[in-house]
Fold this protein.
Amino acid sequence: RRTFGTVIDDNNIELTAYDAINKDKEIALKNNVAIVVYNGVMLLVGEVRTEELRQRAEKLASGIEGVRRVVNEISVEEPVGFGTASRDRWLTARVKLALLDIVDLPDFDPTRVNVSTQNGKVYLMGLVTREEAERVVEVARVVPGVERVVKVFEYTE
């Protein structure tokens, strides 16, 4: 549901945001911040050691042209280790795979849903109908290992 141009714009925003955050060595070297942009909506996830760093990361990322909204889900805690990060990648894949089983919605395309996982929390983004959103959340919640599901959807209706 995004145009090719919007996909390119989202990728450029994401790269620009990573560049801005990586220039701040205190955030980049000792913390863990991930950025996902979908249709101009920026999701920030990860872990930083202080509230001041959390706010600084948001400020650096949100000042980028084309960002319509920032959802800051960065938590203030010690960054997760390699084991947790590997488990999160595995959970993301499991949720994406589970979305392929949604066959009861005639026009649903699971590639319209971006799935990101951070520390067992699954973040769902995309341009979907409310019915699609409900179904996606229902499916994601029952995937083994998912601790929490966070909706960052935009609705088409």
In short: The chain has a mean pLDDT of 94. The two ends are 13 Å apart (CA to CA). The chain has five helices and six strands. The CA atoms of residues 7 and 132 lie 21 Å apart.
